[in-house]
Amino acid sequence: MDDVLDETAPRVADVEQRPTVRVVVVGEPGLLRTAVAALLAGRPGFELAGECDPADGVAEAVAATRPDLALVDLDAVRDASALTGRLHARLPDCAVVVLTARRTARVLRRALGARVRGVIAKDVPPDELIDQLRAIADGQLMIDPLTALAALDAAVNPLSEREREVAAAAAQGLRTKEIAARLHLAPGTVRNHVSTLLRKTGGRSRWDAIQRAQDAGWI
């Protein structure tokens, strides 16, 4: 019958009553930020509150727009924890969401350590991005599934405690003799640990091995 309501269709009143989500986009000027800003500006139920560069003073710039969500390009931010810490201090009710192109355990660890409410991949389809932002605005925690899987795969750390210490020191730019002095080891022992690190990570060089270990969340 024509007068029977379609129970599967959303009621107009319900759609209209959902609050508008104000979003500020934090990222370097360029195609990505412009595209995301345009997407948000053209979607019902969303309002582009502003755009900010990930530089000093960004927390103050974001606070001036008073958004519900801060969408941050994680790959353009040097210290995500410091940035989100400032945002939480200025705007405790603003949910921080990060976009990233790298699906690694290190990314997830950085994001969760920064108390974000969402980790979204940069290659997500536009409609899915909008759906995830709406879910986060409604109070949900959204984590990119492939990033979560990468973290699970890295749960078993193949590096010994001493190998992690050597790798962490090398990641700071210390040379073999400096690492040996810091850890009270012989230089030859340090070189042996570095060789093991190369083998376990599959790295082509010391720096490549360190990067792989960091991405896997092993150090």
How would you characterize the overall build of this protein?
This protein has helices at residues 12-17, 31-41, 58-65, 80-90, 105-113, 126-137, 145-153, 161-171, 176-183, 187-201, 206-215; strands at residues 21-26, 46-52, 69-73, 95-100, 118-121, 142-143. The protein has 219 residues and is α/β, with parallel strands linked by helices. Strand 5 (118-121), helix 6 and strand 6 (142-143) form a beta-alpha-beta unit. The radius of gyration is 22 Å and the shape is elongated.
**Main sheet record:** 6 strands, parallel
Q: Secondary-structure element order, as H and E?
A: HEHEHEHEHEHEHHHHH
Low-confidence stretches: 1-6
Strand order of the largest sheet: 2-1-3-4-5-6
Alpha plus pi helix count: 11
Percent of residues in helices comes to 40-55%
What sort of overall outline do the alpha carbons produce when their principal axes are compared?
Answer: elongated
How many strand units? 6
DSSP strand content: 5-15%
What class would the helix/strand composition place it in? alpha/beta
* Average pLDDT rating: 82
Q: Say what oligomer this is.
A: single chain
The N- and C-terminal alpha carbons lie at a distance of 65 Å
Radius of gyration (Å): 22 Å
Short précis:
It contains eleven helices and six strands. It is an alpha/beta fold and 219 residues long.
Task: Note the main attributes of this structure.
219 residues, alpha/beta, 50% helix, six-stranded parallel sheet, disordered N terminus
